[in-house]
Amino acid sequence: MTEHNSDTPDSTQDLADRVNNRSHRPNSAAFRDFVASGWDRTPLNAEALAAAGFTPARRDAVSAAFPGERLVVPAGGLKVRSNDTDYRFRAHSAFIHLTGLETDSEPDAVLVFEPEGDGHDVTLYFRPRAGADTEEFFSDSRYGEYWVGPRADLEAMSTMTGIATESSATVDDAITKDLGAISVRLVRQADARIDGVIDLARSQVQADLETSEAGDAELAQLLSELRLIKDDHEIAQLREAVAITRAGFDNVVAALPKALGHRRGERVVETAFETAARSDGNGVGYDTIAASGNNACTLHWIRNDGQVRDGDLILVDAGAEADSLYTADITRTLPVSGTFTPVQAKIYDAVLDASDAAFAVAADHPNRPVKFREVHEAAMEVIAKRLEEFGVLPVSAAVSLSPEGQQHRRWMVHGTSHHLGLDVHDCAQARAEMYLDATIEPGMVFTIEPGLYFKSDDLLLPEEFRGNGVRIEDDVLVTADGVENLSADFPRTRAEIEAWVQSRAQDR
Protein backbone atom coordinates (compact mmCIF):
# COMPACT_ATOMS: atom_id res chain seq x y z
CA MET A 1 0.00 0.00 0.00
CA THR A 2 1.30 3.49 -0.82
CA GLU A 3 2.82 5.32 2.10
CA HIS A 4 2.53 8.99 2.77
CA ASN A 5 5.38 11.07 4.04
CA SER A 6 6.42 13.16 7.01
CA ASP A 7 9.23 15.33 8.24
CA THR A 8 11.73 13.93 10.72
CA PRO A 9 9.99 13.87 14.15
CA ASP A 10 11.23 15.20 17.43
CA SER A 11 10.67 13.81 20.93
CA THR A 12 7.72 16.14 21.55
CA GLN A 13 5.76 14.96 18.53
CA ASP A 14 2.20 13.88 19.29
CA LEU A 15 1.63 10.13 19.17
CA ALA A 16 -1.19 10.61 16.68
CA ASP A 17 1.23 12.28 14.26
CA ARG A 18 3.85 9.55 14.48
CA VAL A 19 2.09 7.29 12.01
CA ASN A 20 3.51 9.63 9.36
CA ASN A 21 7.12 9.03 10.36
CA ARG A 22 7.70 6.12 8.00
CA SER A 23 8.94 8.29 5.11
CA HIS A 24 9.48 11.89 4.10
CA ARG A 25 6.71 14.17 2.88
CA PRO A 26 7.73 17.03 0.59
CA ASN A 27 7.05 20.27 2.39
CA SER A 28 9.01 22.99 0.63
CA ALA A 29 7.36 26.22 -0.50
CA ALA A 30 8.29 25.33 -4.07
CA PHE A 31 6.53 21.99 -3.77
CA ARG A 32 3.44 23.56 -2.23
CA ASP A 33 3.19 26.14 -5.00
CA PHE A 34 3.80 23.55 -7.70
CA VAL A 35 1.42 20.87 -6.39
CA ALA A 36 -1.39 23.42 -6.12
CA SER A 37 -1.16 24.45 -9.76
CA GLY A 38 -2.22 22.97 -13.09
CA TRP A 39 -5.26 20.94 -12.03
CA ASP A 40 -8.56 20.85 -13.88
CA ARG A 41 -11.02 21.86 -11.15
CA THR A 42 -14.16 21.83 -13.26
CA PRO A 43 -17.05 20.98 -10.93
CA LEU A 44 -17.94 17.32 -11.03
CA ASN A 45 -20.91 16.33 -13.14
CA ALA A 46 -23.87 15.23 -11.05
CA GLU A 47 -27.34 13.86 -11.61
CA ALA A 48 -30.11 12.83 -9.27
CA LEU A 49 -29.60 9.50 -7.52
CA ALA A 50 -31.94 6.64 -8.34
CA ALA A 51 -33.54 6.93 -4.90
CA ALA A 52 -34.01 10.70 -5.04
CA GLY A 53 -37.60 10.39 -6.20
CA PHE A 54 -38.46 8.26 -3.17
CA THR A 55 -36.55 9.87 -0.31
CA PRO A 56 -38.74 13.02 0.04
CA ALA A 57 -41.70 10.89 1.15
CA ARG A 58 -39.48 9.15 3.69
CA ARG A 59 -38.24 12.46 5.09
CA ASP A 60 -41.79 13.83 5.15
CA ALA A 61 -42.89 10.87 7.29
CA VAL A 62 -40.10 11.57 9.77
CA SER A 63 -40.90 15.27 9.85
CA ALA A 64 -44.59 14.61 10.50
CA ALA A 65 -43.76 12.35 13.44
CA PHE A 66 -41.75 14.97 15.34
CA PRO A 67 -43.14 18.47 14.68
CA GLY A 68 -41.26 21.35 16.25
CA GLU A 69 -38.20 19.25 17.14
CA ARG A 70 -34.70 19.17 15.71
CA LEU A 71 -33.69 15.74 14.40
CA VAL A 72 -30.06 14.73 13.89
CA VAL A 73 -29.19 11.70 11.74
CA PRO A 74 -25.42 11.14 11.36
CA ALA A 75 -23.87 8.99 8.65
CA GLY A 76 -21.05 7.95 10.99
CA GLY A 77 -17.33 8.30 10.73
CA LEU A 78 -14.44 6.24 9.45
CA LYS A 79 -13.34 3.39 11.72
CA VAL A 80 -9.72 2.37 12.14
CA ARG A 81 -8.97 -1.17 11.07
CA SER A 82 -5.31 -1.16 12.02
CA ASN A 83 -3.03 1.76 12.88
CA ASP A 84 -3.66 4.29 10.07
CA THR A 85 -5.81 2.15 7.78
CA ASP A 86 -9.61 2.32 7.93
CA TYR A 87 -12.36 -0.15 7.21
CA ARG A 88 -14.27 0.50 4.03
CA PHE A 89 -16.91 3.06 5.03
CA ARG A 90 -20.58 2.17 5.27
CA ALA A 91 -23.01 4.83 6.46
CA HIS A 92 -25.74 4.26 9.05
CA SER A 93 -28.78 2.67 7.44
CA ALA A 94 -31.17 5.42 8.56
CA PHE A 95 -28.92 8.01 6.89
CA ILE A 96 -28.82 5.96 3.67
CA HIS A 97 -32.59 5.51 3.70
CA LEU A 98 -33.29 9.24 4.09
CA THR A 99 -30.66 10.54 1.64
CA GLY A 100 -30.42 7.82 -1.01
CA LEU A 101 -26.62 7.97 -0.91
CA GLU A 102 -24.81 4.78 -1.82
CA THR A 103 -21.56 2.83 -1.44
CA ASP A 104 -18.80 4.62 0.50
CA SER A 105 -20.15 8.18 0.75
CA GLU A 106 -20.18 10.28 2.96
CA PRO A 107 -18.14 9.77 6.16
CA ASP A 108 -18.82 12.38 8.88
CA ALA A 109 -21.93 13.69 7.12
CA VAL A 110 -24.99 14.63 9.20
CA LEU A 111 -28.60 15.05 8.08
CA VAL A 112 -30.39 17.69 10.14
CA PHE A 113 -34.14 18.33 10.29
CA GLU A 114 -34.63 21.90 11.55
CA PRO A 115 -38.21 22.76 12.57
CA GLU A 116 -39.78 25.39 10.36
CA GLY A 117 -43.48 26.21 10.48
CA ASP A 118 -45.51 23.02 10.32
CA GLY A 119 -42.58 20.96 9.05
CA HIS A 120 -38.80 20.97 8.79
CA ASP A 121 -36.05 22.39 6.65
CA VAL A 122 -33.67 19.51 5.93
CA THR A 123 -29.96 20.11 5.39
CA LEU A 124 -27.18 17.69 4.57
CA TYR A 125 -23.91 18.69 6.21
CA PHE A 126 -20.86 17.01 4.68
CA ARG A 127 -17.21 17.58 3.86
CA PRO A 128 -17.19 19.11 0.35
CA ARG A 129 -14.41 18.83 -2.17
CA ALA A 130 -11.30 20.70 -1.08
CA GLY A 131 -9.32 23.03 -3.28
CA ALA A 132 -6.09 21.85 -4.90
CA ASP A 133 -4.29 24.60 -2.99
CA THR A 134 -5.22 23.13 0.40
CA GLU A 135 -3.13 20.92 2.65
CA GLU A 136 -5.95 18.37 2.59
CA PHE A 137 -5.73 17.89 -1.18
CA PHE A 138 -2.23 16.40 -1.30
CA SER A 139 -1.38 15.62 2.34
CA ASP A 140 -4.41 14.08 4.06
CA SER A 141 -4.34 10.33 3.40
CA ARG A 142 -7.77 9.86 5.01
CA TYR A 143 -9.75 12.54 3.17
CA GLY A 144 -7.45 14.13 0.60
CA GLU A 145 -8.44 13.91 -3.06
CA TYR A 146 -4.91 12.94 -4.06
CA TRP A 147 -5.22 9.85 -1.82
CA VAL A 148 -8.87 8.73 -1.87
CA GLY A 149 -10.33 10.42 -4.94
CA PRO A 150 -12.63 13.40 -5.51
CA ARG A 151 -15.74 14.18 -3.51
CA ALA A 152 -18.78 16.14 -4.55
CA ASP A 153 -18.99 19.87 -4.01
CA LEU A 154 -22.03 21.39 -2.30
CA GLU A 155 -23.95 22.01 -5.50
CA ALA A 156 -23.32 18.53 -6.89
CA MET A 157 -24.42 16.86 -3.66
CA SER A 158 -27.62 18.89 -3.64
CA THR A 159 -28.30 17.85 -7.22
CA MET A 160 -27.75 14.19 -6.39
CA THR A 161 -29.86 14.06 -3.25
CA GLY A 162 -32.38 16.87 -3.73
CA ILE A 163 -31.40 18.16 -0.27
CA ALA A 164 -29.97 21.55 0.68
CA THR A 165 -26.29 21.22 1.60
CA GLU A 166 -23.81 22.92 3.90
CA SER A 167 -20.22 22.28 4.88
CA SER A 168 -19.80 19.96 7.87
CA ALA A 169 -17.52 22.61 9.36
CA THR A 170 -20.70 24.34 10.58
CA VAL A 171 -22.63 21.29 11.77
CA ASP A 172 -21.79 21.56 15.49
CA ASP A 173 -23.35 25.00 15.71
CA ALA A 174 -26.36 23.85 13.69
CA ILE A 175 -27.18 20.93 15.99
CA THR A 176 -26.59 22.72 19.31
CA LYS A 177 -27.96 26.23 18.76
CA ASP A 178 -30.86 27.24 21.03
CA LEU A 179 -30.71 23.83 22.68
CA GLY A 180 -32.32 25.16 25.84
CA ALA A 181 -35.36 26.29 23.86
CA ILE A 182 -35.75 23.38 21.44
CA SER A 183 -35.98 19.63 21.78
CA VAL A 184 -33.32 17.67 19.91
CA ARG A 185 -33.51 14.00 18.98
CA LEU A 186 -30.37 12.17 17.88
CA VAL A 187 -29.67 8.83 16.22
CA ARG A 188 -27.16 7.64 18.77
CA GLN A 189 -24.14 5.37 18.29
CA ALA A 190 -23.88 6.29 14.63
CA ASP A 191 -21.13 8.87 15.21
CA ALA A 192 -19.37 9.03 18.57
CA ARG A 193 -18.17 12.59 17.95
CA ILE A 194 -21.69 13.86 17.29
CA ASP A 195 -22.94 11.98 20.37
CA GLY A 196 -20.34 13.85 22.41
CA VAL A 197 -21.26 17.24 20.94
CA ILE A 198 -24.95 16.73 21.73
CA ASP A 199 -24.28 15.31 25.20
CA LEU A 200 -22.07 18.25 26.13
CA ALA A 201 -24.63 20.75 24.88
CA ARG A 202 -27.38 19.00 26.82
CA SER A 203 -25.34 19.09 30.00
CA GLN A 204 -24.68 22.80 29.60
CA VAL A 205 -28.40 23.58 29.47
CA GLN A 206 -29.11 20.96 32.16
CA ALA A 207 -31.38 18.94 29.91
CA ASP A 208 -33.11 16.00 31.55
CA LEU A 209 -30.94 13.00 30.60
CA GLU A 210 -33.66 10.37 30.95
CA THR A 211 -36.07 12.37 28.79
CA SER A 212 -33.38 13.00 26.17
CA GLU A 213 -32.46 9.32 25.96
CA ALA A 214 -36.13 8.38 25.61
CA GLY A 215 -36.52 10.90 22.79
CA ASP A 216 -33.47 9.52 21.00
CA ALA A 217 -34.85 5.99 21.33
CA GLU A 218 -38.20 7.06 19.86
CA LEU A 219 -36.42 8.53 16.84
CA ALA A 220 -34.44 5.31 16.28
CA GLN A 221 -37.67 3.34 16.59
CA LEU A 222 -39.51 5.48 14.04
CA LEU A 223 -36.64 5.31 11.56
CA SER A 224 -36.58 1.53 11.91
CA GLU A 225 -40.34 1.09 11.56
CA LEU A 226 -40.34 3.38 8.54
CA ARG A 227 -38.47 0.66 6.65
CA LEU A 228 -40.97 -2.14 7.40
CA ILE A 229 -42.83 -1.43 4.15
CA LYS A 230 -40.54 -1.16 1.14
CA ASP A 231 -41.24 1.24 -1.72
CA ASP A 232 -40.75 0.39 -5.39
CA HIS A 233 -37.14 1.54 -5.43
CA GLU A 234 -36.25 -0.62 -2.45
CA ILE A 235 -37.93 -3.68 -3.93
CA ALA A 236 -36.04 -3.20 -7.20
CA GLN A 237 -32.76 -2.99 -5.30
CA LEU A 238 -33.54 -6.14 -3.36
CA ARG A 239 -34.25 -7.93 -6.64
CA GLU A 240 -30.85 -6.82 -7.90
CA ALA A 241 -29.15 -8.03 -4.72
CA VAL A 242 -30.84 -11.44 -5.08
CA ALA A 243 -29.73 -11.68 -8.72
CA ILE A 244 -26.10 -11.00 -7.77
CA THR A 245 -26.43 -13.54 -4.97
CA ARG A 246 -27.58 -16.18 -7.46
CA ALA A 247 -24.41 -15.60 -9.48
CA GLY A 248 -22.42 -16.01 -6.27
CA PHE A 249 -24.08 -19.34 -5.47
CA ASP A 250 -23.38 -20.60 -8.98
CA ASN A 251 -19.73 -19.77 -8.30
CA VAL A 252 -19.96 -21.72 -5.03
CA VAL A 253 -21.32 -24.84 -6.69
CA ALA A 254 -18.67 -24.67 -9.40
CA ALA A 255 -15.94 -24.32 -6.75
CA LEU A 256 -16.90 -27.43 -4.77
CA PRO A 257 -14.40 -29.75 -6.55
CA LYS A 258 -11.57 -27.32 -5.76
CA ALA A 259 -12.81 -26.96 -2.18
CA LEU A 260 -12.60 -30.74 -1.70
CA GLY A 261 -8.86 -30.71 -2.25
CA HIS A 262 -8.02 -27.71 -0.10
CA ARG A 263 -7.07 -27.73 3.58
CA ARG A 264 -9.47 -24.81 4.13
CA GLY A 265 -12.09 -25.70 1.60
CA GLU A 266 -14.71 -23.57 3.33
CA ARG A 267 -12.68 -20.50 2.42
CA VAL A 268 -12.57 -21.61 -1.20
CA VAL A 269 -16.38 -21.58 -1.07
CA GLU A 270 -16.48 -18.23 0.71
CA THR A 271 -14.13 -16.65 -1.82
CA ALA A 272 -16.10 -18.02 -4.74
CA PHE A 273 -19.25 -16.32 -3.51
CA GLU A 274 -17.59 -13.05 -2.62
CA THR A 275 -15.98 -12.76 -6.07
CA ALA A 276 -19.44 -12.27 -7.57
CA ALA A 277 -20.67 -10.09 -4.71
CA ARG A 278 -17.79 -7.67 -5.05
CA SER A 279 -17.54 -7.78 -8.86
CA ASP A 280 -21.22 -7.15 -9.53
CA GLY A 281 -22.30 -5.36 -6.34
CA ASN A 282 -20.84 -3.48 -3.41
CA GLY A 283 -19.73 -6.68 -1.71
CA VAL A 284 -21.30 -8.96 0.84
CA GLY A 285 -24.14 -7.74 3.04
CA TYR A 286 -22.82 -9.72 6.02
CA ASP A 287 -20.06 -12.22 6.74
CA THR A 288 -20.55 -15.29 4.59
CA ILE A 289 -21.24 -18.59 6.37
CA ALA A 290 -19.61 -21.52 4.54
CA ALA A 291 -20.06 -24.39 6.97
CA SER A 292 -19.28 -27.97 6.03
CA GLY A 293 -20.15 -31.05 8.06
CA ASN A 294 -20.56 -30.41 11.77
CA ASN A 295 -19.67 -26.72 11.32
CA ALA A 296 -23.12 -26.27 9.76
CA CYS A 297 -24.54 -26.80 13.26
CA THR A 298 -22.86 -23.60 14.48
CA LEU A 299 -25.44 -21.01 13.45
CA HIS A 300 -23.07 -18.12 12.75
CA TRP A 301 -20.00 -20.05 11.62
CA ILE A 302 -17.92 -17.37 9.89
CA ARG A 303 -14.41 -18.67 10.56
CA ASN A 304 -14.77 -20.77 7.41
CA ASP A 305 -11.46 -22.49 8.02
CA GLY A 306 -12.67 -26.09 7.88
CA GLN A 307 -12.23 -28.80 5.30
CA VAL A 308 -14.93 -29.75 2.84
CA ARG A 309 -15.16 -33.54 2.75
CA ASP A 310 -16.85 -35.84 0.29
CA GLY A 311 -20.13 -36.97 1.81
CA ASP A 312 -20.59 -33.77 3.85
CA LEU A 313 -23.39 -31.32 3.58
CA ILE A 314 -22.17 -27.73 3.23
CA LEU A 315 -24.45 -24.96 4.43
CA VAL A 316 -23.85 -21.65 2.65
CA ASP A 317 -25.62 -18.59 4.07
CA ALA A 318 -24.66 -15.59 1.95
CA GLY A 319 -26.01 -12.36 0.56
CA ALA A 320 -24.70 -9.88 -1.96
CA GLU A 321 -25.17 -6.18 -1.30
CA ALA A 322 -26.13 -4.04 -4.29
CA ASP A 323 -24.42 -0.68 -4.80
CA SER A 324 -27.48 0.86 -3.15
CA LEU A 325 -26.54 -1.13 -0.01
CA TYR A 326 -29.67 -3.30 0.00
CA THR A 327 -28.75 -6.91 0.71
CA ALA A 328 -30.06 -10.35 -0.07
CA ASP A 329 -29.91 -13.19 2.46
CA ILE A 330 -30.05 -16.71 1.03
CA THR A 331 -29.13 -20.12 2.45
CA ARG A 332 -28.74 -23.33 0.54
CA THR A 333 -27.49 -26.64 1.91
CA LEU A 334 -25.62 -28.68 -0.68
CA PRO A 335 -24.43 -32.31 -0.76
CA VAL A 336 -20.75 -32.03 -1.61
CA SER A 337 -20.81 -35.35 -3.44
CA GLY A 338 -23.84 -34.30 -5.49
CA THR A 339 -26.22 -36.73 -3.76
CA PHE A 340 -27.86 -36.64 -0.34
CA THR A 341 -27.44 -39.75 1.80
CA PRO A 342 -30.70 -41.28 3.06
CA VAL A 343 -30.35 -39.62 6.48
CA GLN A 344 -29.37 -36.28 4.95
CA ALA A 345 -32.36 -36.53 2.61
CA LYS A 346 -34.68 -37.15 5.57
CA ILE A 347 -33.37 -34.05 7.38
CA TYR A 348 -33.46 -31.91 4.24
CA ASP A 349 -37.03 -32.85 3.40
CA ALA A 350 -38.16 -32.05 6.94
CA VAL A 351 -36.71 -28.55 6.65
CA LEU A 352 -38.18 -28.08 3.18
CA ASP A 353 -41.61 -29.11 4.44
CA ALA A 354 -41.29 -26.57 7.25
CA SER A 355 -40.36 -23.88 4.74
CA ASP A 356 -43.31 -24.75 2.51
CA ALA A 357 -45.67 -24.55 5.50
CA ALA A 358 -44.35 -21.09 6.37
CA PHE A 359 -44.80 -19.93 2.78
CA ALA A 360 -48.38 -21.21 2.75
CA VAL A 361 -49.32 -19.25 5.85
CA ALA A 362 -47.73 -16.04 4.54
CA ALA A 363 -49.51 -16.47 1.19
CA ASP A 364 -52.88 -16.72 2.95
CA HIS A 365 -52.81 -13.06 4.00
CA PRO A 366 -55.23 -11.79 1.31
CA ASN A 367 -57.88 -14.10 2.81
CA ARG A 368 -57.37 -13.19 6.47
CA PRO A 369 -55.09 -11.13 8.71
CA VAL A 370 -51.85 -13.08 9.15
CA LYS A 371 -49.52 -12.19 11.99
CA PHE A 372 -45.80 -12.19 11.30
CA ARG A 373 -45.27 -14.67 14.14
CA GLU A 374 -47.64 -17.16 12.46
CA VAL A 375 -45.03 -17.74 9.75
CA HIS A 376 -42.66 -19.05 12.42
CA GLU A 377 -45.34 -21.04 14.17
CA ALA A 378 -46.24 -22.87 10.96
CA ALA A 379 -42.64 -23.91 10.44
CA MET A 380 -42.33 -25.04 14.05
CA GLU A 381 -45.35 -27.33 13.77
CA VAL A 382 -43.65 -29.22 10.98
CA ILE A 383 -40.26 -29.29 12.71
CA ALA A 384 -41.76 -30.71 15.91
CA LYS A 385 -43.74 -33.38 14.05
CA ARG A 386 -40.71 -34.49 12.03
CA LEU A 387 -38.56 -34.69 15.15
CA GLU A 388 -41.25 -36.83 16.74
CA GLU A 389 -41.18 -39.10 13.69
CA PHE A 390 -37.38 -39.30 13.95
CA GLY A 391 -37.82 -40.53 17.51
CA VAL A 392 -35.67 -37.84 19.10
CA LEU A 393 -38.27 -35.78 20.98
CA PRO A 394 -38.66 -36.76 24.65
CA VAL A 395 -42.36 -35.80 24.45
CA SER A 396 -45.03 -35.70 21.78
CA ALA A 397 -44.96 -32.96 19.15
CA ALA A 398 -48.13 -31.48 20.66
CA VAL A 399 -46.56 -31.22 24.12
CA SER A 400 -43.35 -29.81 22.68
CA LEU A 401 -45.26 -27.13 20.78
CA SER A 402 -46.94 -25.88 23.96
CA PRO A 403 -45.47 -22.75 25.61
CA GLU A 404 -44.43 -24.93 28.55
CA GLY A 405 -42.66 -27.41 26.28
CA GLN A 406 -40.48 -26.21 23.38
CA GLN A 407 -38.15 -29.21 23.51
CA HIS A 408 -37.99 -29.22 19.71
CA ARG A 409 -36.22 -25.87 19.82
CA ARG A 410 -33.07 -27.70 20.97
CA TRP A 411 -32.49 -28.40 17.28
CA MET A 412 -33.63 -25.00 15.94
CA VAL A 413 -33.10 -22.22 18.45
CA HIS A 414 -33.43 -19.34 15.98
CA GLY A 415 -36.53 -17.74 14.51
CA THR A 416 -37.90 -18.56 11.08
CA SER A 417 -38.10 -15.03 9.69
CA HIS A 418 -36.64 -11.54 9.91
CA HIS A 419 -37.18 -8.41 7.84
CA LEU A 420 -34.65 -7.67 5.12
CA GLY A 421 -33.46 -4.46 3.45
CA LEU A 422 -30.58 -2.09 4.10
CA ASP A 423 -29.66 -4.30 7.04
CA VAL A 424 -29.65 -8.06 6.82
CA HIS A 425 -31.73 -7.99 10.02
CA ASP A 426 -33.67 -4.92 8.99
CA CYS A 427 -35.95 -2.80 11.17
CA ALA A 428 -34.30 -4.16 14.31
CA GLN A 429 -35.42 -1.26 16.54
CA ALA A 430 -39.11 -1.73 15.71
CA ARG A 431 -41.55 -2.44 18.52
CA ALA A 432 -42.79 -6.00 18.98
CA GLU A 433 -46.29 -4.94 17.97
CA MET A 434 -44.86 -3.64 14.69
CA TYR A 435 -42.70 -6.71 14.09
CA LEU A 436 -43.54 -10.11 15.64
CA ASP A 437 -47.13 -9.15 16.39
CA ALA A 438 -47.73 -7.15 13.22
CA THR A 439 -50.07 -8.20 10.45
CA ILE A 440 -48.05 -8.83 7.31
CA GLU A 441 -48.71 -6.26 4.59
CA PRO A 442 -47.84 -5.76 0.93
CA GLY A 443 -44.37 -4.26 0.62
CA MET A 444 -42.85 -6.21 3.48
CA VAL A 445 -39.75 -8.20 2.61
CA PHE A 446 -38.58 -10.91 4.97
CA THR A 447 -36.81 -14.25 5.04
CA ILE A 448 -38.20 -17.73 5.58
CA GLU A 449 -35.38 -19.88 6.97
CA PRO A 450 -36.19 -22.97 9.02
CA GLY A 451 -33.39 -25.38 9.87
CA LEU A 452 -32.34 -28.45 11.82
CA TYR A 453 -28.92 -28.70 13.45
CA PHE A 454 -27.74 -32.05 14.75
CA LYS A 455 -24.39 -31.47 16.44
CA SER A 456 -21.80 -34.23 16.46
CA ASP A 457 -21.58 -34.15 20.26
CA ASP A 458 -25.35 -34.34 20.84
CA LEU A 459 -25.74 -37.62 22.72
CA LEU A 460 -29.55 -37.45 22.56
CA LEU A 461 -29.45 -38.14 18.83
CA PRO A 462 -28.98 -41.40 16.95
CA GLU A 463 -25.40 -41.48 15.73
CA GLU A 464 -26.35 -41.40 12.04
CA PHE A 465 -27.99 -37.99 12.46
CA ARG A 466 -25.03 -36.33 14.15
CA GLY A 467 -22.85 -33.82 12.32
CA ASN A 468 -25.52 -32.72 9.85
CA GLY A 469 -26.97 -29.22 9.69
CA VAL A 470 -29.57 -28.05 7.16
CA ARG A 471 -31.06 -24.62 6.58
CA ILE A 472 -33.10 -23.39 3.61
CA GLU A 473 -33.55 -19.64 3.38
CA ASP A 474 -35.48 -17.60 0.84
CA ASP A 475 -36.29 -13.90 0.52
CA VAL A 476 -40.00 -13.16 0.37
CA LEU A 477 -41.93 -10.13 -0.87
CA VAL A 478 -45.49 -9.72 0.37
CA THR A 479 -47.80 -8.69 -2.50
CA ALA A 480 -51.46 -7.78 -2.70
CA ASP A 481 -52.18 -11.28 -4.03
CA GLY A 482 -50.02 -13.29 -1.63
CA VAL A 483 -46.25 -13.58 -1.56
CA GLU A 484 -43.48 -13.69 -4.15
CA ASN A 485 -40.36 -15.73 -3.55
CA LEU A 486 -37.65 -13.33 -4.72
CA SER A 487 -35.20 -16.24 -4.71
CA ALA A 488 -37.44 -18.57 -6.74
CA ASP A 489 -34.69 -18.82 -9.36
CA PHE A 490 -32.53 -20.77 -6.89
CA PRO A 491 -32.76 -24.57 -6.86
CA ARG A 492 -34.67 -25.52 -3.73
CA THR A 493 -36.05 -29.06 -3.74
CA ARG A 494 -33.75 -31.99 -3.04
CA ALA A 495 -33.83 -33.13 -6.68
CA GLU A 496 -33.10 -29.59 -7.92
CA ILE A 497 -30.18 -29.23 -5.50
CA GLU A 498 -28.65 -32.53 -6.55
CA ALA A 499 -28.99 -31.69 -10.25
CA TRP A 500 -27.45 -28.24 -9.63
CA VAL A 501 -24.39 -29.61 -7.86
CA GLN A 502 -23.91 -32.43 -10.38
CA SER A 503 -24.29 -30.22 -13.47
CA ARG A 504 -22.07 -27.39 -12.26
CA ALA A 505 -19.36 -29.82 -11.21
CA GLN A 506 -19.47 -31.40 -14.67
CA ASP A 507 -19.14 -27.94 -16.26
CA ARG A 508 -15.68 -27.69 -14.74
**Which structural class do you get from the secondary structure elements?**
alpha+beta
What is the residue-mean pLDDT, rounded to a whole number? 94
The main sheet orders its strands as 6-5-4-1-7
- From the spread of the alpha carbons, the general shape counts as globular
Low-confidence stretches: none
Q: What fold name goes in the CATH topology slot of the largest domain? A: Creatine Amidinohydrolase
Number of strand segments:
17
Kindly report the oligomeric state of this protein: single chain
Q: What is the name of the CATH superfamily of the largest domain?
A: Creatinase/methionine aminopeptidase superfamily
Percent of residues in helical segments?
25-40%
The top level CATH class name of the largest domain: Alpha Beta
Round the Cα radius of gyration to an integer and report it. 26 Å
CATH architecture of the largest domain: Alpha-Beta Complex
Largest sheet: 5 strands, mixed
How many domains make up the 3D coordinates?
2
Number of helices, where a helix is a run of at least 4 consecutive DSSP H or I residues: 15
State the end-to-end distance: 35 Å
Strand residue content: 5-15%
Description:
With about 500 residues, the protein is an alpha+beta fold. It has 2 domains: about 15-225, 3-Layer(aba) Sandwich (Creatine Amidinohydrolase, Chain A, domain 1), CATH 3.40.350; about 230-505, Creatinase/methionine aminopeptidase superfamily (Creatine Amidinohydrolase, Alpha-Beta Complex), CATH 3.90.230. Helix content is about 35%, strand content about 15%. It is built from 15 helices and 17 strands. The protein has helices spanning about 30-35, 55-65, 95-100, 135-140, 145-150, 155-160, 170-175, 190-205, 210-225, 230-260, 265-280, 340-365, 370-390, 395-400, 495-505, and strands at about 70-75, 80, 85, 110-115, 120-125, 165, 185, 285, 290, 315-320, 320, 330-335, 445-450, 450-455, 470, 475-480, 480-485. The strands form 6 sheets. It has a 5-stranded mixed sheet, sandwiched between helices. The longest helix has 29 residues, at about 230-260. The mean pLDDT is about 95.
